[in-house]
Specification:
Outer membrane phospholipase (ompla), Chain C, 13-stranded antiparallel sheet, two-stranded antiparallel ribbon, 4 helices
Length: 275
């Protein structure tokens, strides 16, 4: 997967292209992370009064572990490209996003976003005979700036590709801070999955059950997460960014035979060159 950040006038623009199958599979880690490398750049860039739209190229390291049984941790180094305009954003992470309205405190938008397959049958022996396909979400999102440094975000999503027709609602708080002159964004939140979505991602259908894997439908679930992001300019045109995200699974999900862990960590490290 390749990420490139693009600067055009006063807005940061983000576009993404898939270069290899491995890169395509790795992008699902950043999707689960909720905040991508581009978000880091955007948020940190907000500290500059005249942040322009931007076209950039760079390299990104993406790594993380899986909550699924005996699925190995994975990592990849990939080139990247991104595009973001004032109203319309296009990227692999965010899909197609349109900002309906944006004010000093309140911002409202809509998006259509792909979610890459959670796993496939060949990922481990525990998942043999089981595959979950990629799916597409449509969402309505809103943010409210509580203070100059604290922002609340809400996102309601529904599955549009008829894989399971489930819904989710996410709520988070993000705190910006300067530590030793270095900008950071600390975020804590939770995502509610309805039964259809949770069953698709973590359940075992009757047709998939066997002697080592019992049928299981976890029902709705709430998944908390925390993340930290930072951005560091090297020169006027080059920068480094990082994002670490930790997700937690409740017991009704970890009780599934295909789940091995109650938490997962994903990491994104990147370098960008802006034109």
């Amino acid at each position: 997967m390749t990420f490139i950040l693009v600067r055009v006038k006063n807005k940061l623009i983000k576009c993404s292209i898939t270069l290899t199958k491995k890169g395509f599979e790795m992008m699902k880690l950043s999707l689960l992370a909720h905040l991508t490398a581009a978000t880091v750049v955007l948020s940190a860039g907000a500290t500059h009064a005249e942040e322009k739209s931007e076209l950039s190229i760079g390299m990104v390291y993406v790594g993380g572990d899986s909550v699924y049984a005996n699925v190995k941790s994975s990592s990849a180094i990939m080139p990247s490209i991104s595009y973001r305009s004032n109203k319309l954003n296009v990227s692999v992470q965010e899909g197609l996003a349109y900002k309906v309205t944006s004010g000093d405190k309140v911002s409202v938008g809509v998006s259509i976003r792909p979610n890459f397959r959670p796993y496939k049958s060949s990922d481990s022996a525990d998942l043999a005979g089981m595959t979950r396909d990629m799916y597409v979400d449509g969402s309505l999102n809103a943010s409210y700036k509580l203070t100059s440094f604290l922002t609340a975000k809400l996102e309601a999503a529904t599955e549009l590709s008829s894989k399971f027709s489930g819904n989710s609602v996410g709520l988070s708080l993000g705190q910006q801070a300067l530590i030793g002159g270095q900008p950071f964004i600390f975020q804590a939140g939770a995502k509610w999955l309805d039964a259809k979505r949770a069953n698709y991602l973590y359940g075992v259908k009757a047709s998939e059950a066997n002697g080592q894997r019992a049928q299981y439908a976890p029902g709705s679930a709430i998944l908390p997460y925390v993340s930290v992001q930072t951005f560091h300019p090297l020169t006027k045109q080059t920068s480094l960014f990082a994002n670490v995200n930790v997700n937690f699974l409740p017991t009704n999900l970890t009780d599934s035979a295909i789940v091995k862990s109650g938490s997962s960590v994903s990491t994104i490290l990147g370098f960008n060159y802006s034109f």
